Amino acid sequence: MNPLLWMRRSLAVSTLRRGMWDDNPIYRQILGICSTLAVTNLLLNTLVMDVGLIVATALSSATVSALRHYTPKSVRMMAQVLIIAAYVILIDLMIKAYLPDISEALGPYVGLIITNCIIMGRAEAFAAKNGPWLSFLDGLGCGIGYSAILLIIAFFRELLGFGSLFGYPVLPADMTRWTIMVMPPGAFFMLALVIWFFRAVVPTRAQ
Amino acid sequence: MVETGAFTIFVASIFINNILLANFLGMCSFLAVSKEIKTASGLGMAVIFVMTLTSGLNYLVYQWLLIPTGLEYLQYIAFIVVIAATVQLVEMIIGKVSPVLYYALGIFLPLITVNCAILGVSLFMVIRQYSFLQSLAYGAGSGVGWCLAILAMAGLRQKMKRSRVHPALEGPGITVLIAGVMALAFIGFSGMVAM
Q1: Is B73 in contact with A93 (Cβ distance < 8 A)?
Q2: How far is A7 from chain B (nearest CA, A)?
Q3: Is A54 inside a domain boundary?
Q4: Are the beta carbons of A33 and B168 separated by less than 8 Å?
Q5: Residue A90 near chain B (CB below 8 Å)
Q6: I need a labelling partner for A22 at 20 to 30 A (CA). Which of A84, A135, A148, B68 fits?
Q7: For A178-206, how does the pLDDT look when each residue is reduced to its tens digit (9 = 90+)?
Q8: Which of B66-75, B93-102, B150-159 has maximum average pLDDT?
Q9: Which residues, at least 6 apart from B96, have a Cβ–Cβ distance to it below 8 Å?
Q10: Predicted ipTM?
């Protein structure tokens, strides 16, 4: 194989991997917690939110990176916010059109992807310095890493709180439901446990 | 939509629907800035101020600009621009009028632009179809609620400095855990005001 091609591929792979595992937005960077917790009491809502977030992060990272030489330093933040907002509006309209019920349940949280700190964080930390393709992968990796954790939290919250997965009942009906899991404190507790678990398991990357 | 009094909304958004503990908004700066009571109170004040102002302004923008022109789907961009402009303006005005306050709040103001709680308040306001007065009350109440939560957390974290926490749980982990306990405590307030 052409060594140059191989190197580029491995760079791409390592960029993806870093966002998903080593520098995972939730348990390592603690970014974007805001909109995470509100939607994670049902797996289906979480999944829709995740897909929206991955698309928004990847595309806005790529766009920010493609425009990085043309954006004046002084209005950089504003430009980034506008780029992100444009993608989020598209996603919001899509969800409203095709999944009206879920759009209703997600409420303002789709719009709040705009101020989700991961997207801004990746745009600022990575996309402002790297090419569009790598930035796209970085956004994708971070988005997937973020989503995976959300799905883990949602899995336990829905299983223990409603006794169902994706709306299908799986636990016996006479088992007592953990109502606390559906309520806000449950989200905080699950998140804390997830952070604890992953920080203990995943070793800190050697600098 | 039942017409609820502005004062009811104000109290409810502090205790029952606390923007941080029930709606999880503004977590990022909450986790980052809750180490010291002094900085936490500075940020809290700035949030109260900007939240009240932007919820009123965004109400006007939505009702008088976006609805007549049929551009409701642009609300995200409009709100973000209003918030960014307000923060910038507030920064300039405070700098001119009260340098003391400026030095106290100065560094926190830019942080607020990307605080999701501010945008969240404006979006909730639209979804719940509040009137102008209700929006103002909701903005102010949410700001006070957020400030209350971050102050409580900063106080706890200052006390906690000397306690030994498992290394993997230290920092954000334990903070989120405490926030969970606080959220649990705030559930006790529900039913205090009839919504």
Answers
A1: yes
A2: 34
A3: yes
A4: no
A5: no
A6: A84
A7: 878 888 888 888 888 888 888 887 766 54
A8: B150-159
A9: none
A10: 0.80
Nearest to B80 among A30, A81, A200 (CB): A81
Is residue A20 included in any domain, yes or no? no
- Give CA–CA dist A204/A187, Å, rounded: 25
Which residues 92-131 of B are in CB contact (within 8 Å) with A? 113-120, 123-124, 127
> Residue A86: inside a domain, yes or no?
yes
pLDDT tens digits for range A75-132:
777 788 888 889 988 998 898 898 888 888 887 888 888 877 778 777 777 787 888 8
Q: Does A77 touch chain B (CB under 8 A)?
A: yes
The answer to whether residues A145 and A137 touch, using CB atoms and an 8 Å cutoff, is no
Cα separation, B67 vs B113, in Å, equals: 24
The reported pLDDT for the residue numbered A206 is 43
Contact B22 A184 (CB under 8 A): yes
Mark which residues 130-159 of B lie under 8 Å from A by CB. Answer: none
Residue with tokens 């409810």: B12
DSSP lists the bridge partners of residue A164 as: A169
What confidence score (pLDDT) does residue A204 get?
Answer: 64
The predicted model scores a pTM of 0.82
Q: Compute the distance between CA of residue B157 and CA of residue B170 in angstroms, rounded to an integer.
A: 11
| Cβ neighbours, 10 Å, residue B8 | 15
With an 8 Å Cβ cutoff, is A199 touching chain B? yes
Residue A144 belongs to some domain of the structure: yes
Domain of residue A133, residue span: 31-201
Number of structural domains chain A divides into: 1
Task: Give the residue on A whose Cα is nearest the Cα of B16.
Answer: A184
Set of chain B residues whose Cβ sits within 8 Å of the Cβ of A91 = none
What is the β-pairing status of strands A164-165 and A168-169?
antiparallel
Q: How many residues are present in chain B? A: 195
